[in-house]
Specification:
The protein has about 675 residues and is α/β, with parallel strands linked by helices. It is built from 17 helices and 26 strands.
Length: about 675
């Protein structure tokens, strides 16, 4: 059991109470945090015409009026269920509508945090209309918890469709949450509820079994679904007729035990605590210099750096045979050295391999380079380390490298411009040089998450030149928590390094052997470049045109950033197709990556291959502006583009079927990654 795990916030459904203060005191003595109580006594006269003592008893008795903080923390209201909301008789329908609105307004007047509105069938448009109207009135902060059973009362209807219709009618309002009632019979496709904004789980005492010792317990299937829902940080409410003074406490104790037993946190969960479903802008390390505190967070990840050390160790064993280890010194270039963790791991890998190395630590952030110089003079003084404060894409390396090491990966693999940066470094690699990482692939899966959708909808656009929908055309780094994955992730874009043939998405390894050291030196010889460029001394690298010459090696030229002028070789397009087996709603796409550092030494945040305990990267989320309803058995098709030009890189995406969406982020109008 994790001692840091919070107890379950649990309420007690007391129905209607004549003595509110006494009910709160007794529930609190039994370990409950709040009570759920009816605002109006069942069977009472309509709100406006009834006498106070006939209507809501203790709630309006001035001797029991609490201050606003007590109302907001101790009581959740329950509004009456009005069947006449759909009556064909105008007077009855209007009276029911007025009565429901008055109950909601009174709850807001009392500063209740939330009220529970029950939906008992798919015909919910009338109550949804009143709720939606109420949410647009006044300046209250009252939340609406819509109570939906897991299983319909006749067992024939899909209650998720009830909820989906209700929230659609209310435009997925941020103050509408779900009060999910756990039923004795559990329907299929329970995983759909994981993506819904569940605020509270209702558990009737009739759902519990009795164990050999006479204590209430849940069946194994019920334990699994309740444990999973409680991990979404929702609350629980115990209701039912079997509650009495002697037994009420054991239900809360059981839920606490169930929650704590199911929530053993690992390193990833402990690191991510507090960041669940919190949107963050992806880093732009080429455009911005990171702060020391940002470096410090990433350096806490022991898994990532141990894998880098293992990759360097294995690579050195392969490129420097045992019989040459005393004569040969390997040249390692750490590109994007930051505060030095990759330098440290590379040196440790060399020591483990018993190989001599000369290391260049290249870092464009001048502030970080100051710290690197200090480390070179202290911690690394016994090693051959040179600190270079420069952009790897324009640095004039004094010699060619055997190994380049970088950690330029983003949550989507290439979204922090690792391909562009490593392209710029290709010119100072030996023909048989190794790049760590060697390759990485982005992955995408469709997800349903009302929570993330509402978070994106709430993003305020402060830039005047961006369109109103820009928040939905921006990818976000986020610890996705309250979500449901509609299908397994599928591979999207792959990048390989060194990318000798920049025109190819998947360069062939056979190409490595086609370049001789003499050709390679000539390729990046200034004299050769000047000669081939008609005496232009400003060109270090030019496009080779003469077949069969010593300079006829790799057919590309670069600009002052070390990149191809148009960068088109790093653009990508792919259509993905997902089979969705049940009715659901699409809110966007989760993005991951899987990376081969060296041969079979891998790091991954793709869920099926996630590196255990690694927390340096959260997934990335690509929203869909208008949620799309999907019928079970449908084929969901989505298009993704990685677009580039001389100044920036950006993504565009759209849904093709079952219902086409608009193309998100055309021409990078809302989000780009600057070169």
């Amino acid at each position: 059991m994790n001692s840091n795990r919070k107890r379950v916030s649990c309420g007690l459904d007391v129905g209607f109470t004549e003595d509110l203060e006494e009910s709160i005191m007794r529930s609190n003595q039994n370990g409950y945090d709040f009570i759920c109580t009816n605002i109006v006594k069942e069977g009472s006269a309509p709100f406006q015409g009834a006498k106070l003592n006939e209507k809501i008893g203790g709630i309006t008795d001035t001797s029991y009026l609490f201050n606003s903080h007590e109302w907001a923390s101790l009581v959740v209201g329950k509004v009456s269920y009005f069947t006449d909301l759909t009556s064909p008789v105008d007077k009855r329908r209007l009276m029911a509508s007025e009565a429901l609105m008055q109950e909601l307004q009174f709850a807001a007047f009392l500063s209740l945090p939330a009220v529970i509105v029950e939906v008992k069938d798919e015909n919910c448009s009338a109550v949804a209309r009143i709720i939606y109207s109420f949410l647009h009135q006044g300046h209250h902060n009252l939340h609406i918890w819509v109570k939906i059973p897991l299983q319909s009362y006749d067992g024939q209807q899909d209650t998720w469709q009830w909820w989906n219709k209700f929230r659609r009618m209310c435009n997925s309002h941020g103050r509408i949450g779900l009060a999910l009632e756990i039923t004795s019979d559990l329907p299929p496709q329970l995983e759909r509820w994981s993506g819904e904004p569940i605020r509270v789980v209702f558990l009737s005492t009739s759902v519990f079994l009795t164990n050999k010792k006479g204590f209430p317990v849940l069946s194994r299937p019920h334990q699994q679904i309740v444990s999973k829902l409680l991990r979404l940080n929702c609350q629980a409410v115990i209701s039912g007729d079997k509650i009495n003074e002697d037994s009420v406490v054991v239900y809360h104790q059981y839920l606490n035990h169930l929650c704590q037993a199911a929530n053993t946190e690992g390193q990833y969960e402990r690191f991510a605590r507090g960041y669940e479903d919190y949107l963050q802008a992806p880093l732009q390390p080429l455009m911005d210099n990171l702060e020391s505190s940002t470096y410090e967070i990433f350096e806490k990840d022991p898994i990532k750096y141990s894998m880098y050390q293992e990759a360097v160790y294995r690579c050195l064993l392969d490129i420097i045979p045992d019989e040459q280890r005393d004569e040969v010194t390997g040249v390692i270039m750490v590109l994007g050295a930051g505060r030095g963790p990759l330098v440290r791991m590379s040196l440790r890998g060399a020591e483990k391999a018993n190989r001599k190395v000369k290391l260049y630590a290249v870092e464009k952030n001048r502030n970080a380079a100051v710290l690197l110089e200090h480390l070179r003079a202290t911690e690394w003084k016994k090693h051959d380390v040179t600190v270079v404060s420069a952009d790897m894409r324009t640095w004039d390396a004094p010699e060619l490298a055997d190994i380049i090491v970088s950690e330029l990966l983003g949550s989507f693999g290439d979204n922090e411009l690792s391909p562009e940066c490593l392209d710029g470094a290709t010119r100072f690699l030996k023909p048989n040089a190794v790049c760590i990482p060697q390759s990485y692939t982005s992955y995408v899966s469709p997800i349903s998450s009302q929570k993330l959708y509402n978070e994106v909808k709430g993003v305020v656009n402060s830039e005047r030149n961006k369109p109103p929908e820009s928040s939905f055309e921006t990818p976000y780094v986020v610890r996705i928590h309250n979500y449901h994955e509609l299908a397994d992730p599928i591979a999207l874009f792959t990048f390989n390094h060194p990318n000798w043939n920049n025109a190819s998405e998947n360069p062939k390894t056979e190409f490595y052997g086609q370049v001789t050291p003499k050709q390679w030196q000539a390729k990046f010889s200034k004299e050769c470049a000047v000669e081939m460029n008609g005496g232009n001394h400003n060109a270090d690298v030019v496009k080779e045109e003469i077949d069969g010459s010593e300079c006829d090696s790799l057919p590309f030229s670069v600009n002052d950033k070390g990149l191809l002028p148009d960068n088109h070789h790093n653009s990508r397009y792919k259509r993905l197709s997902f089979n969705v087996p049940f009715d659901t709603i699409l809110h966007g796409f989760a993005g991951y990556f899987r990376c081969a550092l060296y041969q079979d030494v891998e790091i991954s945040i793709e869920p099926r291959t996630h590196s255990p305990g690694m927390f340096s990267w959260f997934p990335i989320f690509f929203p869909v502006k208008d949620p799309i309803d999907i019928t079970g058995g449908s084929n969901l098709k989505v298009d993704f583009w990685r677009c580039t030009n001389e100044e920036k890189v950006w993504y565009e995406w759209c849904v093709d079927s079952p219902r086409p969406s608009s193309i998100h982020n055309p021409n990078g109008r809302s989000y780009t990654i600057g070169l």
